[in-house]
Amino acid sequence: MAPNQPLTEAEVETIKSDFPILAQDVNGQPLAYLDSGATAERPTQVLDAERRFLEHDNAAVHRGAHTLAALSTDAYEDARATVADFIGAAGPSEVVWTANATDALNLVAYGIANASRGRGGVDAARFRIGPGDEILVTEAEHHANLVPWQELAALTGATLRWVPVADDGTWTAEDAAALITDRTKVVAFAHVSNVTGMVAPVEQIVGLAHARGALVVLDACQSAPHRPLDVQQLGVDFAAFSGHKMLGPNGIGVLWGRSELLNALPPFRTGGSMITTVTMQASEFMPAPERFEAGTQPVSQAVALAEAVRYLQGIGMERVRAHEEHLARRMLDGLAAVPGIRVVGPPVGVPRSGLVSFDVDGVHAHDVSQYLDAQGIAVRSGHHCAQPLHRRLGLVATSRASTYVYTTEHDVDRFLAAAAEIRDYFGATA
After folding, report:
1. Structural domains in the chain plus CATH codes
2. Contact partners, residue 341, CB within 8 Å, separation at least 6
3. Residues with catalytic annotation?
4. What is the pLDDT of residues 124-154, one digit of tens each?
5. What is the C-alpha to C-alpha distance for residues 305 and 257, in angstroms, rounded to an integer?
6. Which of 9, 170, 253, 291 is deepest in the core (most CB within 10 A)?
7. CA angle 103, 397, 386 (to 5 degrees)
């Protein structure tokens, strides 16, 4: 089978059998889990890897000379190397463990704020921003990649600007080019929108931003789990994603950054584990990545995330992407045939991820979700932590069906059949 071909139904069924949670019934119906864009389920291999570590190797890392401490430290750093290889990093030192992607994005924003206050000395001067400078985001951002930049602007006096979206919630490189100027210091945007499924023109934006001397921060939460991600090839400066969206555990995220930038960025959190020397007057910090990992580290979570990465690598990320795009087309075609349903995001024929957000005329998104849930179909409803985007679209909320490696065509077809019944059920067709 070619590496870019969608998974066969037989392959998906085999994969699905690795996920114990998917074998259950919900409300008397087989579970069709279409909410992986919020949180992915975990295969037995990942659950077993974390349990095995906790049962045999668990100890504090980088702190002890006994056998378990050494085993634990090795497992922790091996996990870092595994993730670094997965995203095309130049080396493990470019991978920082965080609590989640939100934490990772805050680390960068508040690190820049600290640099702008004079912390970090000469090396950190490249990060300093203030009045007259600009931070650029898009109108489609998840709050995790909007609110930290709002705070950075408020703390430094810089101006926050945003790329507007079109009526379908998408934006283009041309839209961004009009706003990237010599005043732009940071450009932050999602690789893949968690609402529209749009795949951003990353390399074009990087070229525009770097030509003006601006840093590029990529929210990779909806791309790292679902398609090949090579941070060096993309050319971005920082990238963030979460473990729980890619078959891994809660409580761990990843910040990738170019080595020279991470070693110049002042730390956001301080305390133990990230220092070289401490006196009563001052402290000196370790090089990256340890300078950003204050306190007790998420060791078992890192081990489990590395196992999730190996699981995805075993499938092949090109095949993951192809499978989800195939399912997205199936959903788009099916929803297009249902009167009264409006899909947001790129139209059929334009590359997008395996998620589809939609509005049912006359029926609130929460009611849509509950109707589907009664039939064992799990979807997301709400503003998906993207209130400005929904406001621009003239919507309070949407429903979102999102796929992953364990999603079958049958899951999608059940969803489409149920979606076609919603307006009749709520009397919204009169």
Report:
1. 9-42+316-423 (3.90.1150.10), 49-313 (3.40.640.10)
2. 335, 358, 359, 360, 361, 419
3. 385
4. 999 999 999 999 999 999 999 999 999 999 9
5. 19
6. 253
7. 25
